[in-house]
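[Automated response] Your request has been received and processed.

Submitted sequence:
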Amino acid sequence: MTLNQTQTTREIAIQYPGTVPVFESLGIDYCCGGTRTLVEACQRANVDWEHLVQLLDAVDAPSELAGTDWSAQPLDALTRHIVDTHHAQVRESTPRVQHWLEKVVAKHGAAHPELRDVQRLFGTLSEELAVHMQKEERLLFPAFDRLAKGVRPGNVAGIIGVPIRQMMTEHDDAGEAFAKIRALTGNYQPPADACPTYRALYHGLAEFERDLHQHVHLENNILFPKALEHDRQLPDV
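Generated structure:
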């Protein structure tokens, strides 16, 4: 893999999807903060540049990576994948994590008061994500599907950018909420007195955040730019 210090984490994650697990393991933002250069991302995550280069050099070429190259897929395939995979994951995981939070807060909340803050943050985030996904599924993604068929949702270029910017702002809010959760949980490291449910909770939160990063990466870095490019190519009517 050929890297330079001016490449953004977004560019690298798109070109080499196998780098995503490396970024996740090091806490390097490739979704909401994907416009930062690799060097800036290293500094922000307090990661040694040479260590990161060694890990990324070990990643196979894109053609050898497991999974689909979503940057090469059409808009409608992308939206279906996001709904069927990532939206479904949020809806499946949310009640399970909330159930664990209720049990763990009831048992360990007195000794670990930060758990109540985690419960509050996750509860708010869950409600916001539910509304966010509905807006995408009922309004934005159908508009993207029309763009893919050559039909602009409006008669002036650029209108689609307004809801896209709103979705990206909401993605930033979700990322900030999970950054607070990660800090409160010590990067999801359970304390010595943690019961099995406590440990399952922290594992579930980590998995939820990891999937959310991949979800936001697909939308911010691939789906939204592709939709905007389709919009620019259509004539005004």
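Summary generated for your ticket: DSSP finds eight helices and no strands in the chain. Helices lie at 9-15, 20-26, 38-45, 49-57, 75-108, 114-148, 161-184, 196-233.
If you did not submit this request, please reply to this message.
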